[in-house]
Amino acid sequence: MLERVIIDRGSIFTATLRPAATVEEVKVALQDLVRDKHFRFASHNVVAYRLRDETGRVVEQKDDGYSGRGRESGAGRVVLEVLRARDALGLVVIVTRWFGGTKLGGDRFRHFAAAAARALDAAAAE
Question: How confident is the model at residue 120 (pLDDT cuts 50, 70, 90)?
Fold first, then answer.
């Protein structure tokens, strides 16, 4: 698990990957994750998913991770781009960030994408 953790200037990023066949399963995955207080009180839980609906059409969505501190605008897009690049379907990726006190600028988007990619790599290796 430690290889899937990214730490930069005090901020910590990690990704959780879950299978999801429906939007309802995506919601359940996020609800399950935030039951853990460490994730519930994280600065951001950024969600992206791709799945097929009952007609076979690809449905994809992202959420930039609302929290008490606002949202990580644009982070959901970069996580969704990782899913698209890998042609990953039937999955939800939740990238969690705990803010370390120092703004990371554009590096934060690279970390969101890298955390998602590492989670997908780990799942493929299993």
Answer: very high
User: Which class is 2-125 in CATH?
Assistant: alpha beta
What does 51-117 look like in DSSP terms, one character per residue? EE-TTS-EEEEEE---BTTB--TTHHHHHHHHHHHTT--SEEEEEEEE--SS--TTHHHHHHHHHHH
User: Does residue 55 have a pLDDT over 60?
Assistant: yes
Q: How many residues does this entry show for the chain?
A: 126
Is pLDDT at 94 greater than 90 in this prediction? yes
- Domain boundaries along the sequence of the chain: 2-125
Give the residue from 24, 84, 2, 3 showing the smallest Cα distance to 50: 84
Q: Look at residue 113 and tell me whether its pLDDT is greater than 50.
A: yes
Model confidence, pTM: 0.91
Buried residues in 56-93 as b, exposed as e (16+ CB within 10 A): eeeeeebbbbebeeeebeebbebbbebbeeeebeebbb
